[in-house]
Amino acid sequence: MSYSVTLTGPGPWGFRLQGGKDFNMPLTISRITPGSKAAESQISQGDLVVAIDGVNTDTMTHLEAQNKIKSASYNLSLTLQKSKRPISISTTAPPVQSPLPVIPHQKPPH
């Protein structure tokens, strides 16, 4: 189920993209800046970007999509699709360490 959003310009629009043909991932909204034009619309983190100003994004690289968005000076029209599942943006988080302190082995006094 896709939906369309038109943000009135000029930019900044207030969102970040991830993915693209060069990453073998669909273009996805990875971050929305609080209080931005994107935040005031119905755009949600994790939404897939189906088209930018009417141009299908299936074959767009990340850079091509960025350039298409940057070239929109007055209005930015996006066709989006709600994410089917919540996405985890931070896939490089360090493993959680045990909260127990490590106590070195002590030898009894001689």
Describe it.
The protein has 110 residues and is mainly beta. The protein has one domain: PDZ domain (Pdz3 Domain). The chain has 1 helix and 6 strands. The strands form 2 sheets. A 4-stranded antiparallel beta sheet has the order 1-6-4-5, with helices on one face. A two-stranded antiparallel ribbon has the order 2-3. A hairpin with a 4-residue loop joins strand 2 and strand 3 (25-32). The longest helix has 9 residues, at 62-70. It starts with a strand and ends in a 29-residue tail after the last strand. The relative contact order is 0.25. Mean pLDDT is 84; it is low at 87-93. One of its GO terms (cellular component) is adherens junction. Residues 1-84 form the PDZ domain.
Largest sheet: 4 strands, antiparallel
How many DSSP helices?
1
Report how far the terminal alpha carbons are from each other: 76 Å
Provide the CATH superfamily.
PDZ domain
Tell me the quaternary state. single chain
Mean pLDDT, as a whole number?
84
| CATH class designation | Mainly Beta
Helix coverage percent of residues?
under 10%
DSSP strand tally: 6
Count of discrete structural domains: 1
Q: How are strands sequenced across the largest beta sheet?
A: 1-6-4-5
Q: What series of H and E elements makes up the topology?
A: EEEEEHE
The coarse overall form would be: globular
Low-pLDDT stretches: 87-93
Which structural class do the helices and strands define?
mainly beta
Architecture, CATH level 2?
Roll
What percent of residues are in strands?
25-35%
Give me the Rg, rounded.
21 Å
CATH topology: Pdz3 Domain
Domain PDZ: 1-84
Region (Disordered): 86-110
Organism: Prolemur simus (Greater bamboo lemur)
Main location: cytoplasm
